[in-house]
Amino acid sequence: MRPSAARRTRRDVTIAMTRTGEGEYAGETDPAYWNLIGPFGGWIAAVLMLAVLDDPRRHGEPLSLSTNFAGAIEAGPYAIRTRNARRNRSTDFWRAELVQHQHGRDVLCAEASLVLAHRRPTDSFVDVSPPEAPAPETLPAVPANAGAPSFLEKYDMRFATGNPFAGGDPDRTVAWVRDRAPRTLDFPALAALCDTGFPPIFLRLGKRVPVSTVTLNAFFHVNSSELAEIGNDFLLSEGRMRVAHNGFFDCTTTMWSRSGRLLATTEQVVYYKTTS
Amino acid sequence: MRPSAARRTRRDVTIAMTRTGEGEYAGETDPAYWNLIGPFGGWIAAVLMLAVLDDPRRHGEPLSLSTNFAGAIEAGPYAIRTRNARRNRSTDFWRAELVQHQHGRDVLCAEASLVLAHRRPTDSFVDVSPPEAPAPETLPAVPANAGAPSFLEKYDMRFATGNPFAGGDPDRTVAWVRDRAPRTLDFPALAALCDTGFPPIFLRLGKRVPVSTVTLNAFFHVNSSELAEIGNDFLLSEGRMRVAHNGFFDCTTTMWSRSGRLLATTEQVVYYKTTS
Predict the structure, then answer these.
(1) HEC readout, B29-41
(2) Which chain B residues touch A105 with a CB distance below 8 Å?
(3) Per-domain residue ranges of chain A
(4) Which of A86-100, A141-155, B161-175 is modeled with the greatest confidence?
(5) CB spacing of A122 vs B246 below 8 angstroms
(6) Mean pLDDT over all residues of chain A?
(7) pLDDT of residue A18
(8) CA of B153 vs chain A CAs: smallest distance (Å)
(9) Range B5-119+136-272 has CATH code 3.10.450.30
């Protein structure tokens, strides 16, 4: 999976992949970003985005990312293929596929549609407000515990409300979160951070049930220099469920900077199973 | 574009297209669903969804639809290609592309990712409430006017708040809407209805500015028999903008049945231009 034809290596603080051809990448899953039965979904979204952003032909910055988690990803090598679907003057439409060789054949495990855009100055408005939350320094870090997925160790997370470990408001979770690694915030890191919220159905049911994200859609409302200014500071996330019905629930999340800037909004649809 | 090889015709109440091969369809744009400079976005989303739903190999019902409006669609013939990306026991992942022959070459004009799923009975919850609104019968229908896009004539729309023609609450638009044609509600019709809201930035700015949707993501929270029970009754939509920044705003919409059932939630990202 790492042929000598590889021309250069794209290395994120946390993701390493090798460019094996035009629109072709190879990498290996990272045990540090493991969830219960596969890679953490935010890592998958970040990997797909990173492959597109690496392409010298792309232009613009991420505006929207729609990631489908099509099937299980096993520990080991993976390949990514990217393709430009359409290029305009201000917008650029890309697709990325993550493929693994499983049981003797190549199977699509995840796919993403990434829309890039050039932003130009206009009148701007924010018509929503960040949630109330004490400063992160005043809140306890979520402790590592034996049963937790390993990816949580990559994040410094501090719950303001809706702490799944402490009961509280079952209506929403408000938490500060940042990468534990001292990395400057960029779009792949933000895409991954968008998926760090706890499944709100755990709060609603008061217990854990099997869940698996089907699709994660993230919409970005800043540019890369605005992200870089945040550095490694905490982001404030507010996540809530609107509906859970016959096997699938939604989760809508807003991600804010400490200064109250709306960075991203996301919508997930997640499979769940209850036995009642 | 309608070769004799066509095996059968898929005919919606409002969309006609010819199946020209496996995963291949041909149709023509419909002047009745025209917006200012191209087809109404909801019609485009519905056309892409309909092509996937027509395929006998698909299984399950729509769970999520992510539609990218990649470029201008001209009046005239179009082709659609669909492809299954991955099939699981409970979920089925499809892509659809709308292509037109423009200026001597085939160009991608719109693309969609459609996730289908089999829903199974589970504990269900709705943690949001429909907006307050007077019964639609007590509200005036939006009058047809000379400058309005033709697609609006296909819908019976009645504003409760945020009527762009009457001022009012600039924070959100609450409106009843249904197809004027007496059709039974189905997923393509619902996908189109999800896009009937007025661009909230018109309310925020107090004037019309050039806008163009880049991506429309819809998430469905019911099955087809639950939709069919609604028949041709009005749906209640609540749309609002959270952020507008440097050329792109978002619009999040919830679609309810008259009985208070949450049918769909959507998130759009829309290009806009201001001159300040």
Answers:
(1) CCHHHECCCCECH
(2) none
(3) 5-119+136-272
(4) A86-100
(5) yes
(6) 91
(7) 93
(8) 31
(9) no
Which helix (H) or strand (E) element contains residue A268? strand A262-272
Paired tokens of A258: 């400490």
Cβ-Cβ pairs closer than 8 A, A with B, add up to 208
* Tokens coding B133: 């609104």
Of A221, A241, A250, the CB nearest to B243: A221
Q: What is the pLDDT of residues A151-205, one digit of tens each?
A: 999 999 999 987 766 656 668 899 999 999 888 999 999 999 999 998 999 888 8
pLDDT digits (tens, 9 = 90+) for A198-248: 899 988 888 889 999 999 999 999 999 999 999 999 999 999 999 999 999
Answer whether B243 sits within 8 Å of A127, measured CB to CB.
yes
Measure A153 CA to nearest chain B CA, in Å: 31
**Whose CA is closest to A204, among A160, A175, A173, A177?**
A173
The answer to whether the Cβ–Cβ distance between A246 and B217 falls below 8 Å is no
Residue B81 pairs with which residues in a beta bridge?
B24, B97
- The pTM assigned to this predicted structure is 0.94
Residue B166 contacts A, CB cutoff 8 Å: no
Nearest Cβ partner of A219 from B111, B269, B276? Answer: B269
ipTM, two decimals:
0.93
Return d(Cα B181, Cα B166) in angstroms, integer. 26
- How do A243-245 and A211-220 pair as beta strands? unpaired
